[in-house]
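Checked the freezer inventory, then went back to the computational side. Two predictions to log before the end of the day. The first one is the construct we discussed on Monday; recording sequence and tokens without edits.
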Amino acid sequence: MQLQGDDVAPIPDTKHAHYVEENVAPVDATLTPEDVPPIEQVAPKGVAAGEQCAAAGIATVTV
């Protein structure tokens, strides 16, 4: 993930402390340039970019 830029970070699910530890563990992983193509095949750069929810869906949420 860090090969794609400094702005990519895991988002922890903080219900339990061990989830935080699991989700930040990839920060210590080292990928080589050869590791990237298979990852980009299943999760191309930009695939998760954009709004979290469509505007129509957000309009239905009541707080």
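The second is the one RB wanted added to the comparison set:
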Amino acid sequence: MPRFLGEVRRVLKPGGWFLFADFRKREEMPLCAGSWWKPGSK
């Protein structure tokens, strides 16, 4: 996930929006959320 998000940051225009749909099970979401909201990410 970090590599994917790095690419999103690289190609997204300043002020642009990124929309992502994820169909993981509810039990897996706490693990996934940790890779989205890290210090230094916007």
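For RB: Helices lie at 2-11, 29-36. The chain has a mean pLDDT of 76. Let me know if you want it refolded.
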